[in-house]
Amino acid sequence: EPEVTQTPSHQVTQMGQEVILRCVPISNHLYFYWYRQILGQKVEFLVSFYNNEISEKCEIFDDQFSVERPDGSNFTLKIRSTKLEDSAMYFCASTPQGARASYNEQFFGPGTRLTVL
Amino acid sequence: AQSVTQLGSHVSVSEGALVLLRCNYSSSVPPYLFWYVQYPNQGLQLLLKYTTGATLVKGINGFEAEFKKSETSFHLTKPSAHMSDAAEYFCAEPNTNAGKSTFGDGTTLTVKP
Q1: What letter would DSSP give residue B95?
Q2: Which tens digit of pLDDT belongs to each residue from B81-93?
């Protein structure tokens, strides 16, 4: 069964460093998302991406984050200058349909645990 | 803005007992609602979803949920808990414009032998 994959599973970085988290969505999916879950808190939406551009983003997105789909398979999240509070699980997700995407299940990857020291 | 509220951050039941995890939504228009499960060190897996039609929705692993507009609720139930049901459960409402989901705070289910 196709699944969303994410690498690395765990990343440790120093505060102020740039980090790139990688995701391979399911191949025929059209919408892509990044969410994060700070330990003990709810899953928080970061960004959605469709047709090679951002569809929606959270308020803080532009301050720290960027996304790219550099080729036909990868979808990356870059954190420009990590802060301690960026320590969290980062989940990538994808949805099969372009139209009415919200009615469809978002398929989530296993997550990358980012630890900022 | 839409929001999803899960009552009870921790629920503990005995094996074989009824599981009830509560979710309330705030949308003024009929929402679409999902329940996800997150096992330790894993991603989010869809348990079930309500879009249109039947208000009682059956999902995987014996779970079901009932959409009640009058109560703005979408509570998750399972008649008999198994040890393997121990996990964190999230209720979520997708945003119809962008497809993103708004998640509740999550409920950790513990199943005692």
Answers
A1: -
A2: 999 999 999 999 8
Which 59-98 residues of chain A touch chain B by CB within 8 A? 91, 93, 95
Contacts of A40 (CB under 8 A, 6+ apart): none
A102 touches chain B (CB under 8 A): yes
In sequence order, which ranges of chain B are alpha helices (DSSP H)?
none
- The pLDDT tens digits for A66-102 are 999 988 789 999 999 999 999 999 999 998 865 555 5
CA A6 to chain centre: 9
Two structure tokens written together for B64? 């079901």
How far, in whole angstroms, is CA A9 from its chain's centroid? 13
Instruction: State the average pLDDT over residues B28-39.
Output: 84
Report how far residue A69's alpha carbon sits from residue A92's, in angstroms, rounded to the nearest whole number: 13
What residues of chain B lie within 8 A of the CB of A26, using their CB?
none
3-state secondary structure of A28: coil
Q: Testing the interface with A: which of B49, B100, B103 to mutate, by most A Cβ within 10 A?
A: B100
Burial class (CB in 10 A: 0-12, 13-18, 19+), A62: exposed
- In this structure, the number of other CB atoms found within 10 A of the CB of residue A43 comes to 25
Omega within 30 of 0 (cis) for the link into A8: yes
A48 and B100 within 8 Å at the Cβ level: the answer is yes
